[in-house]
Amino acid sequence: MRKNILSKLSLMMAAVMLLAACGTKKNTVKKESHLPKAETEAELLKNYELSNLNFHTFSGRAKANVKVGKESHNATVNIRMDRDKAIWISVTALLGIEAARVYITPDSVKIMNKIHGEYIAQPFSYLERYTNRGISFRMLQDILVGNMTIDMLRTDQLQVATSTDDVQVIGIKDGLTFHYGVNHANRPFALNLIELGKSQKLEATYSEFADISGYNFPQRFTLNIEGAGTTVSADMLYNRTEFNSAVEMPFTIPARYKEIK
């Protein structure tokens, strides 16, 4: 498959994602930290679930700086979600030209490279080439809005370490190691994820939280992906967000487009 910068940009924005190192702060447990009892952990997880953004639809536009290897590009990214059903992403380059469009459902991934007149239509598992094996549609959805994936936290291999500054939630489930850094509002400021035995990793951070229609939403989102000899990073700053309004997700592949296998 031919891989140009726009294809990587589209996939990165579509895959948006997870992590395995540290975020805006060092994700280390301070000496005064302690591991709570199991009952406390259960209470914390319940608080995290209640603090997640509970929405029906989401629409956001962000300015993004994307680096693939040593190349850097500026773009505008529009993201729309119909919760648990579909994720739609549009990437616009300079001069307002739409470069790529992505449509993801729990079963499939479709990507149009509008510059080269090409498209990809694959099962959802296609994203594992660029993220981690085991990533689910729900996890991807959570990462895009800065939610904690509660199902992932339900594991007997979980530790919760508290300090005066934050809480660190570390665990293993389904062959994935994860590490959340959580602030005092029970919202994640970092998430790290890596597949056991693999070198590929994803790192994301969340910052500049603001009240958007009653939702505590992180307006800045940074992402780093390393693996398969490629390094991709993005710094996204939302300038428009909206929850629970009708969203349109147009995605029609022109007959002249060539399918890339």
Quickly list its features.
261 residues; mainly beta; 14-stranded mixed sheet; 4 helices; 14 strands; 45% strand; globular
Descriptive overview:
The chain is mostly beta strands and 261 residues long. Helix content is 15%, strand content 45%. The chain has four helices and 14 strands. It has helices spanning 5-15, 38-51, 137-145, 150-153, and strands at residues 57-68, 71-82, 86-92, 98-104, 108-113, 118-123, 158-162, 167-173, 176-182, 188-195, 201-212, 215-227, 230-243, 258-259. It has a 14-stranded mixed sheet. The protein is globular, with a radius of gyration of 18 Å. The termini are close together. Residues 1-9 and 11-39 have low confidence and may be disordered.
Spatial order of the strands in the main sheet? 7-8-9-10-11-12-13-1-2-3-4-5-6-14
- What percentage of amino acids are in beta strands? over 45%
- What is the helix fraction of residues, given as a range? 10-25%
Radius of gyration: 18 Å
Topology summary:
Blueprint: H1 5-15, H2 38-51, E1 57-68, E2 71-82, E3 86-92, E4 98-104, E5 108-113, E6 118-123, H3 137-145, H4 150-153, E7 158-162, E8 167-173, E9 176-182, E10 188-195, E11 201-212, E12 215-227, E13 230-243, E14 258-259
Quick synopsis:
This protein is mainly β and 261 residues long.
